[in-house]
Amino acid sequence: MSEKWNITLKVSRQKQGEAPHFDEYKIEVNPDEYVLDAVERVWAFIDRTVCFRHACHHSTCGACGMRVNDVEKLTCITYIRDVTHDGGTIKVEPLRNFPVVSDLAVDMGSLYRRLESVGARSVLPVPEAEIERSPSSWSADDGQYIRLADCIECGLCISACPAATTSKDYLGPAVLAGAQANGLKRNPELMNLVDSEDGVWRCHSAFECTAVCPSFVDPARRIMDLRTQIFKERVGSLFRKA
Amino acid sequence: MSANIQSVSTPRSGENSWWYLLKIVTGVLLVVLLGIHLVVNHFIGQHGLLTYADIVAYYQNPIIPIMEICFLAVVVLHSLTGLRGILLDLKPSRTILQVIDTFMIIVGVAAVTYGTWLILTIKSRG
Amino acid sequence: MDTQHNRPSPSRFWNWFNPVGRQTSGWAFMLQRVTALGLTFYLFLHLIILGQLAYGPQGYDSFIKLVSSPIFIASELLVVAAAFLHGLNGIRIILTTFGISVTRQKQLFYALMVLALIIITVFGIRMFTV
What we know:
The complex is a heterotrimer. Helices cover 31% and strands 17% of the residues of chain A. By secondary structure, chain A is of the alpha+beta class. In chain A, the strands form three sheets. In chain A, strands 2-1-5-3-4 form a five-stranded mixed beta sheet. In chain A, strands 6-7 form a two-stranded antiparallel sheet. Chain A has a two-stranded antiparallel ribbon with strand order 8-9. In chain A, a hairpin with a 2-residue loop joins strand 3 and strand 4 (71-74). In chain A, helix 6 crosses helix 9 (219-239). Chain B is mainly alpha-helical. Chain B has four helices and no strands. The longest helix of chain B is centred in the last third of the chain and has 31 residues, at 94-124. Helix content of chain C is 70%, strand content 0%. Chain C is globular, with a radius of gyration of 19 Å. The longest helix of chain C has 28 residues, at 70-97. Chains in contact: A-B, A-C, B-C. Chains A and C meet through helix 5, helix 8 and helix 9 of A and helix 1 and helix 3 of C.
């Protein structure tokens, strides 16, 4: 017999031209289901006008990012049990710092354009992927081992970043992480882009991005690494001849 | 394979590695200087540096005015650079940033000048 | 048409001080910003007030009597607290900027805040018992 909870889903609604407001829906769920399942149930059986994004349902596509009870989460892997109790409420809002298209779906275009502008790679040779504790045989220089980059481009980091709240031109943690994976040695043209007020220096070390990243990218660590690379380059160039 | 990187030129000196390095260097200096300042003001002698006479006596040691003037310059620099960083988060336009920069230079120079004058005046009263 | 909702905008700077949904180092960021603004305000106030010294012992010492009351001492302790919280958190930021202790920065934050609290307590005891 699977457990049944009765919960309220409080969904942020905003269609074009309207002010945002919340709608509440009472549904029956199994607490071991995911928040995304609850949103889908509301859409399927109660209100077909609720708009949200979803695709893979296993934390690979990055489509279902939302704010659940004020914290950025990938809803396809967030258990209902972890965010509420029987009789409780789950508040679901769209990601911050992206324009809302409709209800829970936001326009992620700026993220994708910026990732493109730093040449973020989706496939990396393993030695460059900086995986913790990778087997030593994988770091062979011939580059025969490759893997998909950790970043699933979900945008949770940008939603959580306090600096991104006020600066629409800030590249953002995901983009800077992508630039770091390229590295300044490999792509010196990146220097002007990242060593700027909208690059690494907009970051104020809040580390919220790393805290919400569902995919082990650790953007904050990568931003710090980029800063070290920039300092080495800028200060080092003072000592180089010509 | 070179990536399709669009280089964006930075048309103004917003925040960059040199401004940040300035904040870091002044910050580290302040941990020392402000630490000394707080300890001296509260723990030296019977009741710290409280009365006018205490303060004049303190400034007679030749090292002290030099240290305090350095402290003043570093703290004003760190404070104004930091404030500028916070204001930059509000994305001011180029003109407004120039106004902010000018204002800060004036305030900074005025504060350090005034402070130096005050220190030397007090020293001379001993 | 309210399309500005949810977009990044300078008018949302209040979010810097919004504790909702923050993780540990988000609090550190907020603390750093609040203490920065508070200390900057105090710095310039302090410089102006010290001008009283130039008027000689009579003016200054009666001013000192005024600020020896417990309320003033408490607010001074607040300034000392802000200075140590800001400074030690700043050390964490400098270390992480150079890649030191990035993966343990949350623990480093806790450790430094404990150190700050110890120092503030020592100052507090001294300031209230002298």
